[in-house]
Each structure stands twice: as C-alpha cells, then as structure tokens.
C-alpha cells in the first residue's frame, strides 16, 4: 500500500466530513483512514492472510466516496467525528449483528459522544491501523421484495410488545431480501432502541433503519449532536447500498434547529431538512450510478415537506427510474410531485407516504388481545408495505396488520335501506389507493358496474369509531387523534330502485400497478311501510 502524499492530504482536508450539518470550520483535526474490503471466507469478521481483497468497492466518510484499489485497499480522510461506511455492492452482504442490523460502518469518535440523557458512542480511541470491512457473497436476483415499516414508535416496552404481536409475529420467516423502518423507531425514549431491534430481528431478515424526529437526542445543543444515540445503535444517519439491480439511499431529513433567544435560553425544534453536506454525498453517490439503474430514496419526513428539497430534485428529476418513500404522517398517501412544487422532470415523481406499523400511535380501544386497534386517521388500518422489484419495475402493496393479504378495503354502507329511498351513499376506503386507482361498484348479480368517484372527505368508519370512543368512560387507552381527509376514499349513490330482499354490494379496485382487489358487503332492502 502506498502512503498518501502531502499534496493529496491538503486536497482532502477541504473535503473532510463528519455526520451532521455543521460547517467545515467545525473540523478540528484531520487524518487519513486506511482500510481493506475483503471476502471473509471463514466468517470471523477479521482479515486473515489469503482472504481475497476486493477492488472497486465504494467507501464513504459521509461526503466523499472513494474506491478500493486493485489490492482492495482504500484511503479516506476523517475528522475526530466521522463514520466511515462501505456502500454494499450487489451480490455481497455485510455482517449482521445479533439483532440483524447491518454492520457496514466504523464509528470514529476518539473522545466519544457528548454527555446527554441517552448514551451515545463510547470513546473509540485512536484511529486503528486498518478500518476493515468484511463482505460475504450472496445471490441477489433481479426480482426481490423488501418490507417497509412506517413509524413503529413505541413509548415503552408494552408498546414494543404490541409491535411484536400485531406485526412481527406474522412476518417471521419472511423471504423478503431485507426490511426498513422509515423513522420514528421509538417515541423519544431512545433507551428502547435495542429492545425494538431485538424484536424486529425475529423476522429473520437484515433490517435497515431511517432516523426520525422521535429518534434524536432532544437535549442536543446542535444538529450534529442530535444523532449520537442513533449512531451508537444503528450507525450513520444517511448512507446507501445496492441490492440486486437497485440502488437504495437512506436519508436523514431531520434537521435539529437550536437558536438562542434574547433572554439567553435555547429554543430547540426540528424541521424537514437535508443540509448541503448530505446533498453533496447524494450527488457524489448518484454520479457513480448509471442513469438507467433504479434508485430508491428512503426518508422519514415526506419529501414535499423538506425545506431544501429542490437541490435534491435537481439530482433525481432526470432519472427515468426513481422512487421515494417516507413515513411520519401516520396516514397512507401516494403523492405525485409535479412542477407545482418546483419539480422539473419530464414526468411526475412518485413519493409514497407509507402506512405506519403503530397506526395512530398505538391509540384506540384495545382488541381481544389487549392491543389498540390504532386505525390511522385516514381510515386505513395499521400495518406495513411490501415493495417488489423486478429490474427497473416496481410495485407496492399495502398489508394490514393481522389481516389476510386480500384485505385491501372496507365498504361503508347501512345494514338496511327502504326500497325507493334515495340519498344513501356507499363509501369505499381502498387503503393503498391513489388518484391513479379506478374503483367500481355493482349490486350483484343483476346490475352493471358503476364507476365510483374519488372524494376528499373523512372516512365515515373512522368518524364513527372516533365519536363512539369519545362517549366511553373509564378509558384505559389513549384516545384516537382527530380524523383527516382521506386521500383514498371513493363514493357512489346507492340506487333507489333496489327491490326488497338481501343484496350483495361488490367493489372492484384496480391500482396504478394493475393489482385488482375485491370487497363485498351485504345490504338488506326493506319494503316501504304501508300508510
């Protein structure tokens, strides 16, 4: 291995970057980290003579990206607060912790994290002679699936148990390639990180994590310090990796803002933000990704709610194959970002605000298991999503917790109506629907299919449950949040000429990916009372 020249070191000094959004002036010292990326044949996670060193593997310090040379060795600049990570290439896996967390990074914090309420990274000491990254070969086909959890967000161990029984247990043994939690892993209590991770690990697949606004150190006095506990358990707050033909970028779009008031007190808040340093990493990362390769951005706050999003738009809007996904809102929505939001791409960008595992923050009356039903404010149940890939094509499916895969809608209609009566409507909430869905209804078997109209209203079933629970006394649960307008609700008038008898309402929905779903509801039509 050749040492770096003094000239190279000077050039790299200006590019050194730790994680956070501070200026380069914050950097107090600079070193060159050297390391090896190798095929760990014996699985001991240490480089042994004779093990193959891998050339051309990307390694980053959070801003710069370098490649291992022909001998499998990399050199990259670091400060006294840097996370070095390998960008997992296709066909290789990184080591996993006992909690199925990918171990693709090295925390370099010689003095450790600042003292805060929740522990950060312990002092790592001097930079080791080599920062090594073991890899293991694995098959990664063009077609694969990933599991996506929106906010899991437990307040305590009891709510981690809710997650275990309501969501995790049905996924044990999944053949998904990996899973991702899209932020708000916990609800401000960062000491729950490890218990959460051990629980999700039972699914049995590698699990990546996105940082959310409830996953940061709220006592931090700078944005740079707000990720310390997350970094201790999960590693860098932004990074990227390949699986199959797809490139994934995990973003940290939680910007912790600390401002000093006139009275000297610190005012602390967060906003959706990326910062120039992270955008520079994404820019350099994407410069190494072919334009026709599928790219998926995963974040916590929806992209349209990030104040400096337009710089990111410029990096992705010319890519023909790009998708972004978030959580945060506790409702399900497909957003199609257009020129109205400053998007300049040739086609609208698809952004998915994903269903949350905790639904409405584990709220609502408990079911027979003692778990809150936690229906989301848009009328959809809590659950998760399955994202499927096949080359440059993708599809997305909503999965309700504890329900069959084909439970994709609920139909709201009265149990009975009077024949000849008008003014009654049928509502259908298609949980994963969007403005690109087509929904039709018929009264089986004699009537023709009728297109339903998408409406901007609160879900009637959620409204009913919300109002019912408000009347209950001796509550031992947390009340449901206020309803919102649902983005996936359809409506059609019930025909007034139905003949007396028992009838079947049939609903058929076709989504933007061509998935066809069905739902049924029985209704009785009564004879008018004789006068």
Structure in words:
It is a single chain. The protein is α+β, with helices and mostly antiparallel strands. Among the domains are: 6-134, Immunoglobulin-like; 409-526, Immunoglobulin-like (Sandwich). Helices cover 13% and strands 31% of the residues. The protein has seven helices and 30 strands. The protein has helices spanning 6-13, 157-171, 193-201, 228-234, 276-287, 309-316, 460-470; strands spanning 31-39, 58-60, 65-67, 73-78, 82-86, 92-93, 105-108, 133-137, 143-149, 178-181, 207-209, 239-243, 246-250, 254-260, 266-272, 294-298, 322-326, 333-337, 349-353, 383-390, 393-400, 409-412, 416-418, 425-430, 438-444, 450-451, 453-455, 489-493, 501-510, 516-526. The strands form seven sheets. Strands 12-13-16-17-19-18 form a six-stranded mixed sheet, with no helix packed on it. It has a five-stranded mixed sheet with strand order 11-10-9-20-21, with no helix packed on it. Helix 2 (157-171) packs parallel to helix 3 (193-201) and helix 5 (276-287) runs parallel beside helix 6 (309-316). It is elongated and about 95 Å long. The protein starts with 5 loop residues before the first helix and ends in a 5-residue tail after the last strand. The relative contact order is 0.10. Mean pLDDT is 93; it is low at 1-28.
Question: What is the fold's blueprint, element by element?
Answer:
Blueprint: H1 6-13, E1 31-39, E2 58-60, E3 65-67, E4 73-78, E5 82-86, E6 92-93, E7 105-108, E8 133-137, E9 143-149, H2 157-171, E10 178-181, H3 193-201, E11 207-209, H4 228-234, E12 239-243, E13 246-250, E14 254-260, E15 266-272, H5 276-287, E16 294-298, H6 309-316, E17 322-326, E18 333-337, E19 349-353, E20 383-390, E21 393-400, E22 409-412, E23 416-418, E24 425-430, E25 438-444, E26 450-451, E27 453-455, H7 460-470, E28 489-493, E29 501-510, E30 516-526
Parallel strand pairs: 1-8, 9-10, 10-11, 13-16, 16-17, 17-19, 23-30
Antiparallel strand pairs: 1-4, 2-3, 2-5, 5-7, 6-8, 9-20, 12-13, 14-15, 18-19, 20-21, 22-24, 24-28, 25-26, 25-29, 27-28, 29-30
